[in-house]
Amino acid sequence: MSAAAAEADAARGTPPPLLKVEGLKTWFPIRTGVLQRVDRWIRAVDGVDLEIPQGKTLALVGESGCGKTTVGRSILRLEQPRAGRVLYDDTDLLALSRAALRPYRQAMQIVFQDPTSSLDPRMPVRDAIAEGLRSFSIGANTAERTERVAELMTMVRLDPEHMWRYPHEFSGGQKQRICIARALAVGPKLLICDESVSALDVSIQAQILNLLRELQQRLRLTYLFITHDLGVVGHIADRVAVMYLGQIVETGEVTEIFEEPKHPYTRALLGSVPRLDLERAGRLGGGAPGDPPDPANPPEGCRFHTRCPQVFEPCADTPPALREVQGRRCRCHLYDPAHMARAEL
Amino acid sequence: MSAPILTVENLSVSFPAAGARAAVVDGVSLAVSPGEVLALVGESGCGKSMTALAILRLIAKPGRIEATSRIAFEDRDVLALKVTQMRALRGAGIAMIFQEPMASLNPVQTVGDQVIEALRLHERVGRSAARDRAARIFERVHIPDPRGRLDAYPHQLSGGLKQRVMIAMMLVVRPRLLIADEPTTALDVTVQAQILALLRELQDELDMSILLITHDFGVVNELADRVAVMYAGRIAEEGTRAEVLGAPRHPYTQGLLRSIPSLAHRGSDLEEIAGTVPSIGTWPAGCRFATRCPKVFAPCEAEVPQTVRLSQSHRTACHDVAREFVS
Fold it and tell me: What is the distance in angstroms between the Cα of B124 and the nearest Cα belonging to chain A?
């Protein structure tokens, strides 16, 4: 981040980052033939920079296949990135051995989209929540751990009396509460929520969003919220990073970006969300034309130029850089002083 | 207003549950006028898809449409039609598109052949003429490179293109009523916007009626003329888009609308609807929303609420609204 941006953040009262991601690249090989030689690479994450201030919520948004989930998994080293740094409190997690990484696993936890497949159907809820406690030797004995499980269940507003029940005896929303309790059991500082409320009905989703907000305040948690739902982003996030085909195209404060998106993709995305405003009905933008390109073969130049309504001369050949534009960062030639004059013509 | 193209009266669909039969759709009445878009909204398990399937008589055993139900399409009694007459009605009269287009397409046949097959089932037309027609229909639904795409297999197309193919197949037969069951739910938001625009365009052009099944009030606002909100097998509230979204009266509709997250509600808690939908067979005897309703009072648990007419077009089934309305 530039000195000017750091100053602007300090003026806004943004706390220092708990997590910083720099130049992250995670590629997946496509192997073909009898020899299983690597034919091509899917560049799922291709040079991502992120910062999550302590105690804040960063939403990582984008459409399916943009690489947002891979970013989350790479941060936790559930995928092996090929380049970049993941700095947690100034320690590069990607440089650590498995043993040295272990304490950081306690500091960072994840809640997935589908609570049913995240829970072992044959394990009572008490054991599911206590698994991490045992693994990190929290609590002296079984009785202490059981007591801690009861506390955690109360915290996520489940009845501790139900701790010996099995996952199938709970509803979808309750199962997601169990997953949250399990993630919080080991006392993490950073919680990654990967589409954690996407599979829930709206009335249940509201309960979980309220719970997450309450827990954040109570436990001073930092959230990375991975989602495709812009309503959820607007409601819960402080900052947002918009991702397209493996790269961040725009990032900054949610209120600023939602009120005045600069990148044409962010505009298309926000303009495509059907709103509840009665006056605005039937005036939905036509979305972005076409479909997102294949991440194994991304377009040259700006990756969005094949669908961009404002495409001009440099877009097809020169990849734009992520640069400071009016209090946020944006990856678009429209805001590049070298090209701006031509864009206006 | 002209006579409705579809009238559903007192529709009940039941499934065996816990030794008895549970009505997953219980006394639903609806009407769709020509050229109108009616949205049927509700959360998972509320019976909205079951209602749609019942209209096409696609309820599989052990499910059953109860004898008290009446479904009329134009002037035909749908539940009295013979199997062959019903087949003729599906497609030309009423067509349906689903959430997951991949599940509706044959994976081992090109999409062109599937559209041509649909064409030739409904009209006497030669193969090459049918191919030309199919290409024109693909063009009509804005499939890029329509001729080339006729030879594509479903897996070679993106989710948005597959949904366009489904819409193309529906256009082959020019149905008078389209039942669209969560047609954009599986799609990304920029692609969803394209498909919603296409549906609106075609609906205008063909003067087709649409019964839109969805859980997304944003989509309802974009497309619907009227809205019916379903909860646990019954219609809680029905009215014009402005009445239901702008001035909802049923506590369930009110709660649902207030629980939708957005930039506007930043910094405050969302309104929650307490608890969860009771599972099928454990529904309260009276109002099925009674266990979660913030306005619950004496008669709610035991007595089924009567429908209250709030205007020519706006109705709701709620004891609390009725109490206010009478006094």
Answer: 34
Count of structural domains within chain A = 1
Residues in B closer than 8 angstroms to A287, CB to CB, are: 189-194, 197
Query: Can you tell me the distance from the alpha carbon of A237 to that of A259, in angstroms, rounded to the nearest whole number?
Result: 14
Sheet order of strands, A91-92 included: A37-53, A17-32, A83-88, A91-92
The distance between the two most distant Cα atoms of chain A, rounded to a whole number of Å, is 73
The answer to whether the Cβ–Cβ distance between A286 and B256 falls below 8 Å is: no
Q: Give the pLDDT band of residue B1 (cuts 50, 70, 90).
A: low
**What's this model's pTM, rounded to 2 decimal places?**
0.89
The CATH number covering residue A209 comes to: 3.40.50.300
**β B209-214/B177-181 pair status:** parallel
B183 closest CA partner among B200, B163, B165 = B163
Count of all residues that appear for chain B in the document: 327
Closest CA to B104 of B168, B45, B34: B168
Write out the residue range of the structural domain in which residue A321 sits.
3-344
Round to whole Å and give the CA distance between B66 and B263: 45
B31 residue type, one letter: A
Using alpha carbons, list the distances in angstroms from residue A14 to A55, A80, A87, B310.
10, 30, 18, 51
A287 vs B193: CB contact, 8 Å cut-off? yes
Max CA pair span of chain B:
69
* Least confident stretch, A104-113, A189-198, B34-43, B83-92: B83-92
Q: What is the pLDDT of residue A345?
A: 46
Beta carbons within 10 angstroms of residue B147's beta carbon: 15
Q: What is the ipTM of this complex?
A: 0.85
* Residue A285 scores a pLDDT above 80: no
